[in-house]
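Weekly modeling sync, notes
Attendees: AB, CL, MP (scribe)

Item 1: holo prediction request
CL wants a bound-state model with zinc ion before deciding which constructs to order. AB pointed out that an apo prediction alone won't tell us much about the pocket. Agreed to run with the ligand included and paste results into these notes for async review.

Input as submitted:
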Amino acid sequence: MNKLEITQQVLFEVKQHKLNEELKVQQNLKLARQKSKEFAKLETQLKEMQIEIGKLPQNSDKSNELKFELYKLKTHMIKQLNKIGMSINDITPEVNCKKCQDKGTIGSSVCSCIKETVNKKLLKLAGLNENATATFDKADKKILKENKQLNGLFEFAKKFANDFPNIKKNNMVLIGPVGVGKTFILECIANEILKKNYFVIYTTAFNFSNVLLNALAKQQIEQQEIFNSFIDCDMLIIDDLGSELVQKNLSNANLFNVLNERKIKNKSTLISSNLMPEQIDDKYGNRICSRIFDKRNTEAYLVDGKDLRIN
Ligand SMILES: [Zn+2]
C-alpha cells in the first residue's frame, strides 16, 4: 500500500465511523420516541422551534428568547431520556475530531487527524513504533547552561525543526559517544516535525536494517512499499548507526539505496552515530560515507564531552 492508498483507506474508515454514529443516533431516537410519548412530543416542538429560529434575524430579541426556550426544551428532553434509562450520549453522534467533525476534510484539504492516522499506519507498515517522546521543553536547562557546545547544538536543532521544511541543508549528522544527548535531540526534532503533520520515520539503525532485510523476503510489491515508505517520508531519522549487525553487501546496498534516493528527492535525513567518520568509512565504504557527510546538504556535528544524557 502506498501513502495515497492508505490516506484513502483512512478517509473511508472515518466516513464509515461518522455514518455508523448517525445510524446509531437514529435508532436510539426511534427507541426513545417509542418508549416515551413525552420525549416524542418535545422532539417535535424542538424541531419546530429550530425552524422558527432559523427564520429570524440573528441576535434579535425574539431569536434570543426562543434560544432560551430551546435550551429549556433540551433539558426536559434529557430528563425524559433519563427516565427511560437513556442519556444524551445515546442521541449524540460521537465525534473523534472536533476540527473536521469526522468529515476527514476541511474545505479542499485533508484534516490533520487523517494525516496523523496515516502516519501511524505508515510506521506500522514499516514495522516500526512511534517512540519519539522527547520534546525541546523537556531538556535539562542546567546541563545546557553548563555545556556551551551542547547548548549550541540544541539551539541549532530547535531552529532546524522550527524552520523545517524551509532549510538550506536538510540533512544532519550527530557524531559522538553514548550518553551525550544525540538521541534526545533527534527525538525532539521528530516530535516537532510530527506536530507539523509531516511524515516522519524514526528508527534505530538496528531496526532499519532488520526491516529492510526482512522486506527482501517478501513479495516484490510489498518489498517496494516498505522501501518507498523510507524513501518518501518527509524526514527519516536513523539513530545509532553502527549498532546494527551488518550483513555487509545486503545491508550496505539497502542503506545506500535509501540515502541515495532521498538525496535525489531532496528529502531530509538525520543520522546519529557513535562512530567517527573514518570508522563509518571503514564499515560502510566510501560511497555511503560520502553521502552521509556531503557538505553541500548536510550539517555534521561532533558531540563529545562527558556523559550528558538528558532526561
Ligand atoms: Zn479531523
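Recorded for review: The longest strand covers residues 235-241.
Action items: CL to compare against the apo run; MP to circulate these notes.
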